[in-house]
Specification:
Blueprint (H helix, E strand, L loop, with lengths): L1 H18 L5 H18 L4 H19 L8 H23 L4 H21 L6
Helix pairs in contact: 2-3, 2-5, 3-4, 4-5
């Protein structure tokens, strides 16, 4: 009986661990900067973006260069990460060139949408 209980518990634990979403450190690191720049921009506060544009680009570059972990489709993910890095590079250039806030808001919004494209569409489905 104890063996049956042990095997049942082990099986449930394995299923629960397998059902968890894939983790990606570089994605979390990027999101930490994206969230503190995008959400204020939604309220027309572009100062955090201006202050962290270089960090946003650096985190995007680290993420783009990182190996795609299990749980994500590398063939789908890598081209979208390339796009995200290009967008973040453009944001940094726009900040450095003192582009209007309306332009910066459009650019961070586009990068945010690309970020969500990765987090929502690039995960491999568990079967």
């Amino acid at each position: 009986m104890k063996q049956l209980f042990f095997l049942l518990t082990l099986s449930i634990t394995c299923i629960a661990v397998g059902a968890q979403k894939a983790e990606w450190k570089e994605m979390k690191d990027f999101h930490a900067v994206m969230s503190v720049t995008f959400h204020p921009a939604e309220e027309n506060n572009l100062q955090p973006l201006k202050e962290k544009a270089a960090d946003l680009e650096a985190k995007a570059k680290l993420w783009q260069q990182a190996a795609v972990p299990a749980g994500f489709n590398a063939l789908v993910t890598k081209p979208i990460l390339n796009k995200l890095l290009q967008q973040c590079t453009l944001i940094k250039k726009s900040v450095n060139n003192k582009k209007p806030d309306t332009v910066l808001k459009e650019q961070i919004t586009a990068a945010h949408e690309t970020f969500h494209e990765i987090t929502e569409k690039c995960r491999e489905e568990s079967h």
